[in-house]
Amino acid sequence: MNEFRWFRDHYSENVERMFAAVGDLYAEYWDDFFHFAIFEQEGEDRAEAFRRTHQRYVAALNIQAGDSILELACGRGGFADFIAAETGAWVLGIDLSPAQLCHARRHDRPNLRFLRHDIMKVDLLGEGTFDAVAFMDADIYLPDKQEALERIGRVMRPGARLLLIAWCKQPGLSVIQEEMVLEPFMRFWGVPGIETAPTYRHHFRQAELRLIEEIDLNEQVRPNWDFGYDRAIEAVRDAPKAIAAKIPGQAAHHGRGRNPADKGAIPRRALHQGRLRRGLSGRHLFPGAAQCHHPLIWVVSLVMGL
């Protein structure tokens, strides 16, 4: 598809534009952390889930005081700040988005810094520089996953660990599943391609990275999909009010000519798409795929070492 080729060939521009456009909205309706929390029990508080998720990731990376840590696609810097505060390690967060980094730099610690830098050029930061690397929920935007992993491997010291929280598609999808379910998601978020877990394992071997641990997180991250859909609906409902509030005289006219009960209602097309996406996660259409709300995406925790 031409648009996916464009996302790949212009990935830096694509990422910058997207997060400049939606970053603040995403933070308002989702969180300052642009990744998923791991939930261990039903009804668990979301803030507590994030706190324990971050503790779990720090433990997986085996971070010690004084270590040099790199977070790739650090976004607004929340996890990088957590590492710096909790471990005493020296932390560098890199991201392509100036808009995201503007928020990240609110975190002010002597052992924490942020830099605008491209993951596809991460090896320019210096070979054998870092004791641990974290890369969460952003691999899908990379134009060449194997090349990226090879470059990441170069900046890791002997014995260093890489934590990759990857969004993987299921192996063996049909053309209809790809075109009707997966590609609309990719097109909406500017995603050039999504790998399968077996393909990632091949990439690790090519990059001479040893797989230490692989965990299927789908059941534990499922509440994030629920929360995301609910908040997206809320954002759609709030949009007309926000626009009216910014335009003098519009607030009084908002909803004129419509049934008062429909004020702020979601457009019918959006409602239909919401029903469609939720329906497609059913086992009758995709057996074995109803572990998360996007039926074809697996969220996998991968810990690698040199």
Verbal overview:
The protein contains 11 helices and 7 strands. It is globular and about 50 Å long. Residues 246-295 have low confidence and may be disordered. Helix 6 (145-155) crosses helix 8 (197-206). It has helices at 2-9, 11-29, 46-61, 78-87, 98-104, 145-155, 175-189, 197-206, 218-246, 250-253, 268-280; strands at 68-72, 90-95, 112-116, 130-136, 156-169, 210-216, 297-305. It has a single domain (2-221, 294-305), classed as 3-Layer(aba) Sandwich (Rossmann fold).
Poorly predicted sequence stretches spanning 5 or more consecutive residues: 246-295
Q: Could you name the CATH homologous superfamily?
A: Vaccinia Virus protein VP39
Major sheet: arrangement of strands? 3-2-1-4-5-7-6
Give the helix proportion (percent range).
Answer: 40-55%
Structurally, how many domains make up the residues?
A: 1
Shape: globular
Largest sheet: 7 strands, mixed
CATH class: Alpha Beta
Examine the coordinates and then state which fold CATH places here, giving the name of the CATH topology.
Answer: Rossmann fold
Number of strands: 7
Report the average pLDDT across residues. Answer: 80
Q: What separation lies between the terminal Cα atoms?
A: 36 Å
Number of helices: 11
Tell me the fraction of residues in β-strands, as a range: 15-25%
* Coarse structural class: alpha/beta
CATH arch. level architecture: 3-Layer(aba) Sandwich
Output the helix-strand order.
HHHEHEHEEHEHHEHHHE
Using only CA atoms, what is the Rg? 20 Å
